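Anyone up for a design puzzle?
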């Protein structure tokens, strides 16, 4: 990673922590992944040779930047979905600051609706970090748009284990998937499609 991006990611991590720590921002919290999770996502993207990444839950683009930088060497790209307008504007500004905007497509709207319009098997890696209560409803489309051999990564698997229980159980019950829980950051649930 180049020094400019590292500086920006450090700045965004500090900004996110200060922003979310202010009670005045409670309803608009950015809820960024931890820096260790960013490193882990980058490692997963590179290790799997992912070129086409889908992220659900952009916020201000902190995790998106980790992913977009990770696929830059192989000419990859990230599609990311967000519905909150304020966050969309922050994310677009951060993508431009990082010089990674040409590698990122930001879809504005509800992820459930957006997922329906995405092609079968069109992503190598999907990072899910949005509205946890909707994951079971989104699962058929998430499963459909992930290619065979593709990797699903879901944040908050330990921080919100109970909320995620129904979803993770459904994925584990699917014979096409092999899953594992990795205790990095807020807990990453990984599932690879056979
Ligand atoms: C935990 S934050 C994402 C943090 C981001 N991945 C990061 O690490 O920087 C979850 C985001 O999902 C968005 N979101 C929630 N429900 C959504 C939905 N149905 N469709 C699209 N985005 C949604 C929220 O507005 C919020 O910005």
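Challenge accepted. My sequence:
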């Amino acid at each position: 990673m180049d020094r400019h991006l590292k500086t920006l990611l450090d700045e965004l991590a500090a900004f996110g922590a200060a922003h979310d720590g202010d009670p005045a921002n409670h309803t608009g919290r950015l809820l960024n992944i931890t820096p260790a999770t960013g490193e882990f996502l980058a490692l997963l993207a590179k290790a799997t040779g992912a070129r086409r990444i889908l992220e659900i839950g952009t916020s201000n683009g902190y995790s998106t930047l980790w992913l977009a930088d990770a696929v830059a060497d192989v000419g990859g790209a990230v599609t990311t979905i967000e519905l909150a307008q304020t966050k969309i504007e922050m994310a677009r500004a951060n993508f431009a600051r990082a010089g990674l905007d040409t590698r990122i497509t930001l879809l504005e709207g509800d992820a459930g609706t957006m997922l329906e319009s995405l092609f079968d098997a069109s992503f190598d890696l999907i990072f899910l970090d949005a509205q946890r209560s909707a994951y079971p409803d989104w699962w058929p489309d998430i499963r459909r748009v992930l290619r065979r051999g593709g990797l699903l990564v879901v944040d908050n698997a330990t921080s919100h284990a109970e909320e995620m229980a129904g979803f993770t159980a459904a994925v584990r019950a699917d014979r096409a998937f092999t899953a594992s829980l990795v205790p990095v950051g807020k807990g990453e649930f990984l599932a690879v499609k056979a």
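A detail worth pointing out: The longest helix spans residues 3-21.
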